[in-house]
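Input chain follows. Return structure tokens only.
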Amino acid sequence: MRALRFAAPLLVAAIVALAPVLLLAWMAKPPADASQVGSSERLAYAMAALAFVGQLALAGGVHANTGAAPRVGATRRAIAGVGRAAVPALLVVAAVVIGSLALVVPGLLLLALLALVGPAAQGDGPVTAVLARATEATRRQLPIVAAVVAALVVADVGLAVGLRVALVSMPAKPSVHDLATTVRYLHALALALLVISPALAAALAARYPIRQ
């Protein structure tokens, strides 16, 4: 995959794209008692959702380096690509939520259609033009893009579930140490999402044509 040449710059860009996830994790505090443990689980799922938005934007950072020389301004291009894709990515998620609530367009279908918004945002034009380019690129390969999107969702949510099972064991009467494991869990989740995000974003960006 061509993005592997830019692993280090993309990791730096991933820190920018997933900054809200990292911030939530490092601001987390242990629950006061067993009745509040569920709040950590809800926070973990919120982090997974934010990571998905960041991965949509990070795909823009991958595409921004397409055809460029490795390590020559790669970090700057990747971060700039994330910046250009951030607002369109947030709009896509908002549209998916609204579409799902209104039952006009199934949320997952709308998400698949607009999933290439990051690479599409690297071109000129207003947000409407960005969304149009993303949709056009997806229509030619909807099943493949939908599969990649599903893989992103499974990876993000799977990490949240898997790490909780592995790291959090809460007895009926938890000690202070037991309660503190929820924070270690959130820290581990944030780092795991950060590490896998460049590869997931690269898989998504690979579906966008180099010339669109």
